[in-house]
Sequence to fold (837 residues):
Amino acid sequence: MSQTVPHTASGTMNLRSFFARHGVSLYPLLVILALIAFFGVQNPYFATFDNAVNIGRQSSVLLLVSLAGTMVIMIGSIDLSVGSIVTLAGIVTALAIDPFGPGVAIAAGVGVGVAVGLVNGLTLIALKVPSFLVTLGMLSVLSGIANMICGGSSIMFIDQSLTELVNSEFVPGIPNIILIALVTAAVLTFIAFKTVLGRYLYAIGGGEVVAANTGVPVNRYKVYAFMLSGGLCGLAGVLLTAQVGAGTPAAGANMLLDSIAAIVMGGTALSGGIGGPQRTILGVLVIAILSNGMDVTEVSSFTQEVVKGLVIILAVASTIDRKKYLFIK
Amino acid sequence: MTSPAPALELRAVTKRYGAVTALDGIDLVLPRHGVLGLVGENGAGKSTLISVINGTARPTEGQLLVNGRVVSLGSPAEAAHAGIATVFQEQGLVANLRVYENMLLGRERQFSWAGILGATAMRQFAREVLDELGIAIDPLAVTGNLNFGERQLVEIAKAFALGHLYPVEPIVLLDEPTSALSDRETEILFDSIRRWRGKASIILVSHRLADVFAVCDAVTTLKDGRVSGHWPIGDATPDLLHEAIVGRPRSAGYYKEHDQRETLGDVVLELADVDVPGQLRSVSLSVRAGEIVGVAGVLGSGKTALGHVITGALRPSGGEIRVHGRRLRPGSRAAALAADIGSVPAERNLAGVIGMHSVQSNLVLPSIRSFRAPRLPILSGRRQAATTDRWIERLRVKTAGRSQQIRNLSGGNAQKVVFAKWLARGVRVFVLDDPGRGLDVGAKEEIYTLLRSLAKEGVAIVLISDNLPEIIGLSNRVVTFRAGAISAEIPAHAHDKPSETSVVTNMV
Fold:
């Protein structure tokens, strides 16, 4: 976060230093522009406002999940349970909405996420099991529970108020789900740079021993990071269920890998301490634009998987500012 | 016979990085079989000079001659072919490999056939090199199981192994080889270096003038990227070197004894019968406002544990710690922090600063809550910046700015930031563990001046160090530890400092 402090006296202002100063690397943007240009030429529909809204609608949930993962990766841990929290929260929401109404359903979905995050965090600090393993185990546990609850099939509901809320347009032309995701991203960016919580998360990721010596309650803030991650995934589950109109047992299945790819592509180091939510937004955009672009240009879904994988590797290789990384592992 | 060409010669070597001139017209001669000491402050250009010699960086201007022939070294591999090997401070050995594997790492090709390693030949070769150097280390030992000093010797043997593989006599660059060695290990290393004269030409880069006098036959000083002096060792004196390194004569009272406070304030920190099983036995100690108490002892004597107990990193099983008469909750960093106890840890990069973060982020970390807006959880960027700038100026921290990553600062400047992060918060008790570690003489002197002014302001200082002259020179009182208990308290008035011997007697 060395580059997040704006200089008071700014001399010449070029684009690169502007971005650098605001903690956003320029390269993911270039990748995005290149993708837009490429797909725009292939199919004129791609570069329309309609399609932009489409991309936003398709990637809002992924953005929330990626932001969740970012908060944990910032402290140098990892949360592999993000996708399974989305699934479980989505199912709980679908179950709660008809008997209890949309308000309780939202609270239940988010609450499930926060609770899982709390358990993840406490297990990590109490049993000293690495986060990788804690959350890997949790991934399996939650998928199992989700399937047990819904018996392997989707859960439909009648109350459409939540679905309407998510799809209606508070700002004309832009569905609310996009707005919710963007506002969340903005709030998290604010938290990262302008609050004690954010500063402590960076400090723990950058140097746990230094943070502890300085009086940062390291364990407590680690738990906070996991709770934040869980809560965001819970919200993602709520929105996904609302958007799809059902709670499904495979809802979050593909989100883990996409989100990690987005986070790293954005420029948050897996070793922690560098990057942040503002960078993840760009990483998500790359993945979303790529998927949508290939849909629009009618690339077969098998080819899509191959291309996506390759582009992720290439993009990460070309976007990481390696000088900031001590280890590449 | 004409006099042989020097092993290594630099002619008017200049190295620029953009607008920064790191080396400015360096002339340097390393005679064949010579041992040349190279000393200078952090930032004087020693590291750049090493990277120019070992092929990591190309000089912008000037020539490099090896055995009288002009060479152009584009990479460490090319330097290795020319016989140049570097032994770095941060060791370049792979811990899970065996000694012989490390010694021949990257050279396996010459011992293999169709990709299959000839392990027997490798071991044999490694054993010969070690024997020749008189190093009693088993080539089959796992490198990670050796101690630091032994690993350093393996690293040097690796350099010699290269010399045997190529038809050249090795030129060995030793970068701060003693900074992490115990006295005994240092002595072993120096004995070895003396024995290797006639087999190699050596450049020894060091902070410690004592190293240079112990083993070198000539010394070159660097200052601001230029050669500021060169002497055969017989003509060099510590004062001459000091002046050439710092650029001004050594001030009379290096430890600022004339600024030592003799009238002290009230008792600030009190330890009463503090016990930590296996580490501290019934330790009672009080430190007054403005007092510097030096803590001396051998490794494991309890001196480090004392620091940890005060800062809350270690929980005592019995006894009490009081600050201004108020009992401190034991084993709680938060409580120590609330009582305004600050600490400068010995391991700066591990425990003192977050290298990848900016000067500002590091500096404001302990006091971060004070930058919140009233009644809002929002941090004021402007106030953080102002505070950082103020401390950068006050402590004269050399940095490109407050947003510079701290890992780009020299050791002395990073250490100043460690001090500043506590001073910005306000400390009443300061626990310093080896605050001069890895700093050059100039930076140390600035830290000492800072300690004196803190004492003047009434901070109670506990100074833990291995450096006896430093402890004696700086402290009002020296406390020695032996087997977890205080073995003596020795007054150290400005005009009546105890001898090192009288302190050491109580340590062993």
In short: The CA atoms of residues 258 and 312 of chain B lie 33 Å apart. Chain B has three domains: 8-86+148-246, 265-340+427-508, 351-426. The mean pLDDT of chain B is 87. The first strand of chain B starts at residue 8 and ends at 17.
